[in-house]
Fold:
Amino acid sequence: MPKQSAGILLYREINNQLQFFLVHPGGPFFKNKDADVWSIPKGEFLDDEDALVAAKREFKEETGQAIDGDFIALNPVTLKSGKIVHAWAIKGDINHETIFSNLFEMEWPPKSGKRQSFPEIDRAGWFEAGEAKLKINGAQAGLIEDFLTKQT
Structure:
């Protein structure tokens, strides 16, 4: 069974322009990367867990803010790794400059024997559709496309 994640595609409308909320992964591997590495707030869940419940939990873990409302189910996408991402879109607003994420620990520098903590998410931002599709992980761009299709 492939691994699966659940996440939230948060959107808002500013001056009749749709914008999407994306998060940038923390840690040393992604520090200087921008295109094709951003993501919706998401995380793994187990088969016996409700995917939408998991998506809300992951949103809170990665942004520090709870979310609820009328969710729009999006078609799942499959990442290059084979992981399946289940996602829901919801209209809302969040201050991208005040998010705070939970931490993970890893050996850094490699083979140093030292362990360091890094935020799961080191920053977030709002992007219009074209820019969001360039920044987001390639497979996840399908979530934005699916959402846009459902809006017409």
About this structure: The mean pLDDT is 95. Strands lie at 4-14, 17-25, 42-44, 72-73, 77-78, 84-91, 103-107, 115-119, 121-128.
